[in-house]
Structure formats: C-alpha cells, structure tokens
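ok, trying the design again with the full structure, not the truncated one.
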C-alpha cells in the first residue's frame, strides 16, 4: 500500500491517526539535505476568463523539500482562492480524529483476526513485534484502518511527516494571505470511501500494507524522489498503473470515483463569472493518467498546459 495506495488517497486525515499506534516506533531518520526545489507537478487549465492551477501533492514531506519552485510560488500568488481535498476548516476540526476512529471501530462482534487469513495474521503479528506495537490496539478496528496506520507509520519512520505535506503548507500560507479556501469533498466522504470497502477489499488493503512494509524504505524513497523530480510517468506507472492492473476495484473506489466527483466542482471555478483564478492542491496521482483530472479537463475542451520552467520538453506534456 505504501507504493500503490498511500499517495493515491488524499487522506490528509490519515496523518491524524499516525500517533495512535506509534508510541513504541523508532524515531524518524534525519532526512538528507536536498540541494534544489522540487520540480512541480503543476498544470494550468484555462477557459476564456478563468484559470485553474492543478498542483500534485505528496501528503507527507520533509523540511528539506522546501522551498518550493518559483513556478509554484507564482501560481499561488496569481490565484485568488485555494481548493484542497478537504477544507482547512475540517482539517482543523477537533472532531475529525474521533469521527475516523468511530467509523473504524468494529460493530459486528468479531475481531481483526477473524477477518484475516492465517498467513496475513502471522505477518501482522511479526510486524507488531518488530515495531513494538501491541495487537490489542488493533484488535477492535477494521482492517482498512489498520492498513492505513501501517502505511502512515512506515512513512513517518522515513522522516516523512504530514506537518510538512504540501497541502498543510498551502493551508497555512493561504490563511496568512487571507485567501479563501474550500474542499472538494467532506471528511465524511473520505471516511465513507474507506469504511465502505467490502471484506475482500479490506483484506487486500492490509495485506498490501504489510507486503510493502516488508520490502522496506527503498520503494517509498524512490516514489518521493520521483515526486521531487516531477516525474509524472514514473509516479503513474509505479503507483496508479500497478494498482489499476492488480486491484481494479480499489483503484476505482480510491481514484476514479473521486476524480469524477471533483470534476464538476473544479469546472464551476472555471465557468464562474469574473476572472478569478484558483489553485487546486490534491494528491499527485489524482492528476495523472487517462483517469486523472488533467486529462478529464483536457477532454472537455479546456486549454491545458504543464507549468514547469525547468522541465525538459519530453516531460512537459
């Protein structure tokens, strides 16, 4: 899941659950200093009057991933408003962690072990032991919540932190600049998307999280590096492309259905009266591939161009 799902889902609220099971975990490793600003995954979509800037986020980052590029800073300055997957107001709500925990608590009288095959349960036991976690903390939660927690834990062990995520950064500076903000969906939508997985999807969810944890940090480091390099093709092929082939039902739920729901809200900003521009900050993979927001808007006839002054021409598409 670290490779295929974690950056796919927006799940800024996922960061809120990281502390639930991480008390005994290792401290994040100190990130190596980066020497250049990340190459942005940034597109400009225009109609006759308004423009939308689409910026692909990595939801957990390091301090060394800043400052951002001049292209991104210019897009923020040009935008009169900023949209996120969740509104900053909902993200700041003290009720949000409780809502997620309540949704994840089992109501059927069974335990986590009842939902998992013997091999997956053994892997979970091994993971808990290796990371000084108590399975009693997991027992009363549904598999999707446990899988999500493992993914977040694995990223934080590598020094990636939701406090430094691109979404959080722009929520902070939009507030400082007095720019209006909004969300493309409600927290309840995100929670319902996860909690609505059937038993088979949930088993896949936790099994993949454990599989990726076994593989160690190399893959997530490669994906983080691809994000920093603005390598849309690699991010697509190694995350969304593989998920689409191997877990099509999860891919449809987590990516396609939500992209389709966001599209009318983004178009409203393009067709609104006046000439106000908007910066939209969402998980990078929601912008990529034929199912991504970029191609969906291009298909509706809007002018779409990648904004990347440092990109090579073969990447700038």
């Amino acid at each position: 899941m670290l490779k295929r799902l974690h950056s796919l889902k927006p799940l800024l609220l996922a960061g809120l659950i990281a502390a639930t099971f991480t008390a005994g975990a290792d401290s994040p490793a100190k990130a190596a200093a980066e020497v250049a600003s990340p190459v942005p995954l940034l597109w400009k979509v225009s109609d006759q009057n308004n423009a939308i800037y689409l910026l692909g986020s990595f939801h957990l980052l390091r301090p060394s991933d800043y400052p951002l590029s001049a292209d991104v800073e210019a897009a923020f300055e040009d935008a009169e408003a900023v949209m996120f997957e969740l509104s900053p107001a909902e993200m700041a709500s003290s009720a949000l962690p409780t809502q997620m925990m309540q949704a994840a608590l089992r109501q059927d009288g069974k335990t986590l072990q009842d939902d998992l095959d013997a091999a997956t349960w053994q892997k979970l036991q091994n993971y808990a032991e290796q990371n000084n976690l108590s399975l009693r903390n997991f027992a009363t939660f549904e598999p999707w919540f446990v899988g999500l927690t493992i993914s977040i834990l694995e990223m934080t062990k590598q020094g990636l932190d939701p406090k430094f995520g691109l979404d959080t950064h722009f929520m902070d500076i939009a507030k400082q600049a007095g720019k209006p903000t909004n969300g493309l969906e409600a927290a309840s939508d995100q929670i319902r998307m996860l909690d609505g997985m059937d038993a088979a999807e949930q088993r896949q969810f936790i099994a993949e999280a454990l599989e990726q944890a076994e593989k160690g940090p190399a893959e997530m480091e490669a994906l983080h590096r691809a994000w920093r390099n603005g390598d849309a093709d690699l991010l697509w092929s190694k995350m969304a492309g593989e998920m689409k082939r191997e877990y099509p039902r999860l891919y449809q739920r987590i990516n396609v259905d939500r992209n389709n729901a966001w599209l009318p809200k983004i178009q409203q900003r393009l067709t609104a009266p006046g000439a106000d521009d908007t910066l939209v900050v969402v998980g990078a993979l929601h912008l990529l591939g034929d199912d991504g927001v970029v191609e969906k808007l291009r298909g509706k006839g809007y002018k779409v161009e990648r904004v990347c002054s440092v990109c090579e021409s073969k990447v700038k598409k």
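Keeping the full-length input from now on. Residues 1-34, 313-317 have pLDDT under 50 and may be disordered.
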